[in-house]
Amino acid sequence: MSEEPVPSVPVDYDIPEDTYTSFIDVLRAKLADHPNPDNVEGRPVLAKQSFPQEPARWMYCNLSAVKDKEKTTITLAVRDDNVYLIGFKAHSGNWYEFGFNGKTVPMIPGSTFLECDVDYRSLVGGSSSKEVKANLVKMQLGKSFAEESVNRLSGYVQEAGAPDADTKLDLARLIVMVCESARMISISNTVNDGWASESKISEQQVDYLWNWGLMSQALLGRREYGDKYIWPKKLNKIEIRNTEDALSVVQLLLNRPAPPPLQQQQLVAKANKEEDEALGQTQVEVFSVRANLPLIGTVAVFDGRRGQIIYHCNNDLPRTQEDDEVVLTGPYRAISALGGNCTIQVFDIDSSKEGALSAAGESINAGGMLQLQCWDDDSAVPEPDTPLRRNISTAHGPVTVTYAVLSNAVEATIQVKLRLANAGTHVYGKVTVSSKLKALDGVASVLFSRDSDHTVAVSTDQG
């Protein structure tokens, strides 16, 4: 966590007494009020995303309602650089954050993980995008539903396992009525028009939710490069065909830099050739982490939505040998390059070694951080779909990360099963996985690695 507390900006909303539009207007104004203000035709651009564990500022949306003549309150912790809801504080004062124990690094100090992910599929359910969209358009929005959600979340206490369906629905509702409405005029107008009774978003508006970042990038790209910026086909497919269409939907722009024209032309040509532009997204894939020391600690990747642990080892576990690739344990979800960059952080490194102590003999932060740039105006930014190696400096020496920015990636889960003849088998060795893509030839990820002194006992039903 940051040594200095991250500043928080309060935005108060008494749902029974205040107007919805005034709350959204104040929230938008405070989000736009950052040290480097910018706008595209009157649409403010959010603060640049840097993706440390915490944003430059938290927006603390303090929502209050009334239940049985008693005031109920919650606080939503919203990032100022992308307007993502990260967690909430119940009336008890306890913070709850999206994520999973053992898989996620907290962004909110002292929070409890909800054991639930932040995406709509996790919150409203659905095994496909079509089903998720159907569940979102059925979701009831408006004043009474906002009050109901605040009342329920105000008394929330984390039980074993994931939150129940009502809690997840409450969070999804508030994300749409607060975060998405702050981002987009189209959403806030729909919610406000039915505020006194009920409103629902349309299927087309769900497409807006899923493409707000791309609309932001397109507006910034057209401003920067004019007609040299190629309008994305994905936006044409949701009837956002030009700048005017995008401006009619968005109010706040994600600070998502557009790739330079030459690089964009290459990406578009590649997507057209593969005929699957609508499938892919820009994502970061971490293939390997190598250290020139036995690595005891944690490596995590922050993309603005999650802080995913990709490696963890403590003194009780077999450690990597020097100059060896470690076995990655994550991420559990694809790493988004939505903001044009993400951050890899090495921390909790064993501080007992020489070099990890200050002059006064006190333990110091032995870890390090690396910001991965996906693209920018700088011609030095490497081409996408190319394996890259970067070093993270730590007090004990460099940690080398091999990664690639994939321009047209889809998320998939792989599982490796060992076909064992006998129960109670002990196994050791190395299992790696690699891509058939020519550009990634020779790059592999280690899924399993144990020597003969550290065998793993497995049974036939474990696989």
Q: Please state the CA-atom Rg, rounded to the nearest Å.
A: 23 Å
How far is it from the N-terminal to the C-terminal residue, by CA?
A: 38 Å
Spatially, the strands of the biggest sheet line up as 1-4-5-6-7-8
The CATH architecture of the largest domain: 3-Layer(aba) Sandwich
Structural class: alpha+beta
Total E-strand runs: 21
Shape: globular
CATH class of the largest domain: Alpha Beta
CATH homologous superfamily of the largest domain - what is it? Ricin (A subunit), domain 1
Largest sheet: 6 strands, mixed
Mean model confidence by pLDDT: 85
SS summary, helix count: 10
CATH topology of the largest domain, by name, is: Ricin (A subunit), domain 1
Task: Report helical residue fraction.
Answer: 10-25%
GO biological process, one term: defense response
Domain DUF6598: 284-460
Keywords: Hydrolase, Plant defense, Protein synthesis inhibitor, Toxin
GO molecular function, one term: toxin activity
Write the layout of secondary structure elements.
Elements: E1 8-14, H1 20-32, E2 39-40, E3 43-44, E4 58-67, E5 70-79, E6 85-89, E7 95-97, E8 112-113, H2 120-124, H3 129-138, H4 143-154, H5 165-183, H6 185-193, H7 203-225, H8 233-237, H9 243-247, H10 261-274, E9 281-291, E10 297-302, E11 307-313, E12 324-325, E13 335-336, E14 341-347, E15 368-373, E16 388-394, E17 397-409, E18 425-427, E19 429-434, E20 444-450, E21 456-458
Parallel strand pairs: 1-4, 7-8
Antiparallel strand pairs: 2-3, 4-5, 5-6, 6-7, 9-12, 9-13, 9-17, 10-11, 10-14, 14-15, 16-17, 18-21, 19-20
Helix pairs in contact: 1-5, 4-5, 5-6
